[in-house]
Specification:
This protein is α+β, with helices and mostly antiparallel strands. It has a 5-stranded antiparallel beta sheet with strand order 1-4-5-6-3, covered by helices on one side. The protein is elongated, with a radius of gyration of 16 Å. The protein has 3 helices and 8 strands; from the N terminus they run βααβββββββα. The protein has helices spanning about 25-40, 45-50, 125-130; strands spanning about 5-10, 55, 55-65, 75-80, 85-95, 100-110, 110-115, 120.
């Protein structure tokens, strides 16, 4: 399974009045994981959009196990679930600095042609990169 790991520290503005990460911020964390996953492959999401393909999220599932708190060092692991078709599926795990599993998540995104606003196949260069990694 193709994966990537990033780390970041929870900022004060990402927390609620109790000092816990506000639940809506997890979607942004997952986006950070996906963008860095692509970057690890040598693919720029920005350039993908400039070439006319966007990747909107069409499904998001989060399972909160423990709370992340202000100033926690978070490790986010992003996994490609299967070879992409018109859709691409990711799975995520978020850990704190004590290696406690905080959250699991899944997302499905669709490759959309920005001119027609219709689903399209993934870019050939993306499929070629994935194939070279012994998926």
């Amino acid at each position: 399974m193709l994966s990537n790991t990033i780390q970041f520290r929870v900022r004060y503005g990402e927390t609620d009045q109790m000092g816990f990460v506000y639940h809506g911020n997890y979607a942004q964390y997952l986006e950070m994981g996906r963008i860095e996953w692509l970057r690890k492959l040598g693919i720029s999401y920005k350039k993908m959009e400039e070439s006319g393909i966007m990747l909107p999220v069409i499904n998001l599932s989060l399972n909160y196990l423990r709370s992340a708190k202000y100033d926690d060092l978070i490790t986010l692991k992003t996994f490609l679930v299967k070879k992409p078709s018109v859709r691409i599926d990711f799975r995520y795990e978020l850990y704190n600095e004590n290696n406690e599993l905080l959250t699991t998540a899944k997302t499905t995104l669709a490759f959309i042609d920005m001119k027609t606003n219709k689903p399209t196949r993934p870019p050939k260069y993306l499929l070629e990169k994935i194939a070279t990694l012994n998926y």
